Amino acid sequence: MNYYLLEDNLIQQKRIQNIIASCHVFDQPAALLTALRKDADPKIILLDLEIQTVANAGLNVAKMIREFDILSPIIIVTTHSEMVYMSYQYQISAFNFIDKTQNEQQFKQRLLSAVAGAEKQNIQKLDNEQTAVVSLPNGQKHERVILNDIHYVTCNDSKSHILTVYCTYKQIQIRSTVKRIPILHEDLIQIHAAYVINKRQLVSMDTATRTIELANKVRLPYSKKYLKILQGLLN
């Protein structure tokens, strides 16, 4: 397991290296991005939010990382706890957030706990089934998403070409059609003119209300013509 840290404060660099001795340390985003692109092995990435007095630099770096690496856990280590909410807007799927202002014992415990959790996630994702990736069409581009992270896909209007992909930690908007989604992977099943679900997330169905329930407790309507397909998935 490889560890990478983006931090431009020497004191904080040493502080984290005292806890994670094998950590590769960078103080420049470009150098970190180059190293990450060359490393195909499982890794954990630690990012400070403020780099060279730019408060949201770490979030911008995380967004660039997600363009070529959607699997590696990202742990935010920062004094700017008030900016944590922005990570959801940036859709970086941060694994954890560590507040630098904690005392040494608390900081060490939180960091070691976060790293242990990230290591466990990496080990689980080494399973091919866990790491299956779907390339979602988005106009002229594609968005790469881990299959198991997808819960369902929908559009607000059956004629709309803008879809929302609901994932475990984020929502993605893509320019495509509902009919194009099921052909991307056999686990993506259309259940309604406006809904496609990941069959791995299906928990139950209610024929009285003609709805299904997913693992995240979301209930969605299904069309009568998909009834037998859904029954087959649950049997």
From TrEMBL:
GO terms for molecular function: DNA binding; phosphorelay response regulator activity. Pfam families: LytTR, Response_reg. PROSITE patterns: RESPONSE_REGULATORY (PS50110). The keyword Heme does not apply. PANTHER family: STAGE 0 SPORULATION PROTEIN A HOMOLOG, TRANSCRIPTIONAL REGULATOR-RELATED. Gene3D superfamilies: 3.40.50.2300, LytTr DNA-binding domain (2.40.50.1020). It comes from Leuconostoc kimchii (strain IMSNU 11154 / KCTC 2386 / IH25). This is Response regulator. The lineage of its organism: Bacteria, Bacillati, Bacillota, Bacilli, Lactobacillales. Coiled coil: none annotated.
